[in-house]
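I had to read the description of the data format several times before I understood it. For illustration, here is how one protein appears when written out as sequence plus structure tokens:
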Amino acid sequence: MIPSHPRVDLAGIVVDLMDERAAIDALVHRPADSNPLAVISANLDHIVQFGHGGRWRRTLGDSLRPTHTDADGQSRPLEWLTLLDGAPLVTQADRLTGSSWPRLAGSDLVGPLLDAAEKAGLSVGFLGGSYLIQRLLSRRLIATRPGLVIAGMWSPDRSELADEQSSLKLAEDIAAAAPELLIVGLGKPRQELWISQYGPATGASVLLAFGAVVDFLADAIQRAPAVASDHGMEWAWRLAREPRRLAKRYLLDDPPGLVQLRRHSSLLPAVSAVSPPPADTGPIRSPRRPHPPSGTGHDPTQPAVPSHGRPGQFSALGRPVDVAVLVVTYNNEDHLRALISSLRQEARALRIRVVIADNDSTDGTLAELNLHPDILQVQTGGNLGYAAGVNAARRKAGDAEAILVLNPDLEILPGAISEMLDVLRSGEADVVVPRMVDGEGNLKPSLRREPSLSSVFGDALFGGHWPQRPAVLAEQDAAPESYQFGHEIDWATGAAVMTRADVDRRIGAWDERFFLYSEETDYFRRARESGARIWYEPAATVAHAENGSGSSAQLQALMAVNRVRYIRKHHTDVTAEVFRCGVVLHEMLRSFNRDHRRTLAIVADEALWDALPGPSATRYPAKVLGGFPTGSVIIPAHNEAAVIGRTLNSLEPVLRTGRVEVIVVCNGCTDDTATLAAAVPGVQVIEAPVASKTAALNAGDRVATQWPRVYLDADTVLSPTALRRVLEVLSESPVMAARPAFRYDDSGATWPVRAYYRARRRLPSTQQALWGAGVFALSREGHERLGSFPDVTADDYFVDRLFSDEEKVIVPTPPVPVQTPRETRSLLNVLTRNIRGPAEQRSAPAPADAAPQVMPFPSDAAGPVPQETAGERTPDMPADSAASSASSTAWELFRSIRGPRSAVDALSYSGLAATPRLVRLREPRAGASSAPIVWERDDSSRRPEGLPR
């Protein structure tokens, strides 16, 4: 063992402080029966690569924490010693300890080390450098150190080092030569990673990651003058001599390490090398882990029989399993057979439950699934998107140790699930992703870095032309060694993700607002924010056909838009707008391609976002009715004979389940509304004499018996799928109020009306509240806060103000079609009502804890915002709030202008919104007139010719 010595933590790297003599003695006189020792010379580049925030953080050990490797099938320990190199590290160590420490660079240490090895009779091997350089080195060593025992020299090329079998063969060849000291000069980080994985298999007692020392010893590279080294300027001297090779490292990669070094460095307490690691340092994981204890892994050549039954059979719901596999399908008939077959092979060694959520497939997907009765099927009730499908399957996962989300177009290579599960069971990671190859076995780059402003502009400018550019300029990790060795990552493509079940519950549901793309980016980010460690495991491999979601110009545009939505959710508005400019630049530079031109137009104009692929309801009600949640639907109706039929027809399949009660309250009707409603089996009809919507809502509440409660306008069509999702969210989550997504239907409307709503679609605030969709819902707890509906015009606006952001949610559902006015006069009537509604509610201030809602990112579903009509203010609103509200909307409107068309729409919007305000200014103030309030109703969208076909 190495004697105790001072240690410092430099940006996550435990560095051993020793002088040259102590280091040489520790290496040359190491006991023969000791475990192999890996020696690292840590400089600033080492901090960048392996320290806090580095790509290879927590992959190497240190003198406090040994690692293990099983690359050759035998579990072997490996001890570590990290020496001080690099002027910035020396300066920091001196500052922390108050003492002066020498710089022990490999190039300085190797000469005295070889002299001591020659004197002690130790054999030395050299790994790295070209064949020519090694011949020069051999001649020089014979001339300068004739007594040195040279065990051998090996000069592998990069392809050999990147191949596992070739690396194992290389380690065997080295072991046959039996060097006691092995100097490894493969370049950083390849040399450290190779030692960590294959070093013990070489049989060497000491393995030294000494970079370019082979070239220095052979006099192939000139050393920096002593004056440059003594003053910490060796880097500048080397940069001047080799600018093309070293500019990226010294000028781009290394500077962030200086910040890390200053922020995250400390003096460690004096402990012996055998003491346990500090509790807060976290586990260290080598690229290969030891075999799991008996019973936690499997031998692929000797398949074990799971305790749940026949080999290859999937476990039923109600039994505990090792892994619950969740798959989302949408017309994947061609891929399922290969996936299920590979999962059955994995089920020979593990207890696996397979849950497949189908997003309304119309091909032979369901027929293929029906051939496997031990697979649990879940019908989502439509094409709700990947995240919604994952969540639907997740709710049926049952008792499982781990959750594995898989794309349907995957094939699991033998042992992959066991390998990932072993990583979780080791306690060294919480989320694991495998190595991914295509159908031909070629590596597919799947690792990603967290999206940033620098990466979006780097990708826009360089694309695939500079794959090895600095990490800050690229979201995709293209380095070959990143896919050869296991390490901690930011995120990866979501085709295959395994998470510990308890960690998955902590992370929460996948965000269904991302219909497709960016949902995995969001899941991994929330995993990191929860404290979870995400690990890439190359020993687990899956083959990915990567066409299960299809490909089209619309999906390409959706991918670009969802990148912007992701940044909006997690960053400020300014950052999101700059990021959006980067996405626009990316598409603009590639606009010679028609699909990129289409994407450019969509990203630039937010009014087009709601035309992108999104949730849709099934045409087959049977797919959504099974296990339907309970609830009540209350429909106030005043002379709605023209529309009540289509509203109730959409709910008729749900009525047949007996799980939902539908109550139509005819308030002051003089037409056939009640008769038409009563003709629908299962509908309860209540006659109320007063033509008051809020009175009708209260009357419906007195009759209703189920929870949650959905309040639906008589002219709003709510699909069974959307109704189910709203009821499920209110029943299964702590939120107390919700509404579904919606879209505007302006077909048949006049040009000013269409222009107004095009401008509305471009405003980020178009989805910020419960009002605007013609439908909202309350849980029992939410209704208790409401009590009863007051006599106000804007009931949905009143309800919205009762709840804070955390207490209400917009449910991503198949959008409810909201009929816009068909005539300009009707739109002015609606805007006039929207001014009066909030003004009437002065006597009902919002709760003090109900903060203004800011959605992570908006969709385009909302009606005219009450705050835009802010000529009035409520008692709980500051005096300047109305003006601030109007100015905020004006600023939003200005920012939405992307060209001549959007500018014209913005002017139309402003003119229409201002007209009722100007009219209201000429009206007498409240109390000066006893004229009754007129209900400005939009009848244009209720005409038969105005209804959707």
Summary: The first strand starts at residue 7 and ends at 10. The domain at 321-450+490-544 is CATH 3.90.550.10 (Spore Coat Polysaccharide Biosynthesis Protein SpsA; Chain A). The chain has four domains: 7-267, 321-450+490-544, 452-476+551-604, 625-941. The chain is about 40% helix and 15% strand.
